[in-house]
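INTERNAL TRANSFER SHEET
From: sequence group
To: structure group
Subject: Retron-type RNA-directed DNA polymerase

Please process the attached sequence and return the structure record in the designated field. Keep the field labels unchanged so the import script can parse them.
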Amino acid sequence: METKLERIAELAKAHPEMKFTSLAHLLNKDMLKMCHYELAGKKATGIKGTTKEEYAQNLDENLENLLERMKRKSYRPVPVRRAYIPKVGTTKKRPLGIPEYEDKIVQKGLAKILNSIYEQDFLDSSFGFRPNRSCHDALKILNVYIERRYTNYIVDVDIKGFFDHVDHKWMMEFLKHRINDPSLLRMIARFLKGGYMEEGKYFKTDEGTPQGGIVSPILANIYLHYVLDLWFEKLVKKKCRGQAYMVRYADDFVCCFQYKDDSYHFYEALKQRLAKFGLEMATDKSKIIPFGRYAMENCRKEGAKKPPTFDFLGFTHYCGKSQAGYFRVKRKTSRKKMSGKLKECKEWLKANRHLDIETIMAKLRRSLTGYYNYYCITDNTPTVDTFRDKIRGFIFKWLNRRSQKRSFNWEKFVLFFKKYPLPRPTVKVSIYDLRDEISYIL
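Return from structure group:
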């Protein structure tokens, strides 16, 4: 099966205009079984509550039944279970769709097929949900564009509720550029129209992708590839007087411009471009700011203390200087992300302070290790160290509330901390290490 997908990828790369007419047959028993084994077992279940273990008890029989329905074209995805997760730094909640386990298997197979085709088409400006391309890679390339190119203005854009407003008709039109297999297209359309269940009621979905579904990231990338990436590369850049660059991670993107008028023309054109495809710019969260090697000097001339900042992928980017006095882009954890994580940690400690001490500290160490792996990048260790200190303060507070009697004074807590230390932050990712990304920017 992997060999067949590799062959599709080779054909897609060699023939950019080629349309694939026979793909649905790839969703055979071997493919679906492979998808089953690759799926994580301990995940939230859909409306039927089927787990991976339960499905695996009669795996061959279940897959044969699924294949039979797919061949008869009677397979229809079960409506997803709608759940809500908190949005970091706000009181709002983000809707999340949880598919039934069998639908996850099919979505996994569809994602493999779509990735094998479209990974050859996607541009280097796109980083989200793609193999061997991480958030850190996007930050590294953005750093090159700002520090080593003629970037003087940043356009920071937020698309309002992107996953909820993807136009289904346009989505299918974009897929038809590369796929002419009615069976596969029908299956994708049924996932888009599958609807969701909330509090026992069924709701239709006339727009949007099933956020939370395995196939959603690749569908989102395909949509924005045609709506945004190609438009910027083929039209916007050609109309600009100076240099222009874009870095996109899923629906979060930043554009760099050399000249002010180019940035403003793009900003206005982008509103119309998004509206054409059923999307809307969140104007309260989008902005054009002076940013780059001359921004600090220009701000002083205008009487401002320092240039404005922008947030991208959880980091606040600001203008700084190297030890030698040269311009550098620096980053620190965004205030919203940091406060959200601190709140989450505080609530967990409050609810679980009755657990064994070793269990609590082991959980916190694992959590901090994951946090460090993402946020410990060049220039950000002081901010992460502050985060660690605040976590330490939470531990002191909530371990002292395990009973009516105070457990620690500060001296005893220092001794306790020596026995159960939290890891200290060190740089995990260098923004200036471009060994894996150099091909993107040549």
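Handover comment: Residues 216-239 form the longest helix (24 residues). The CA atoms of residues 297 and 303 lie 10 Å apart.
Transfer complete.
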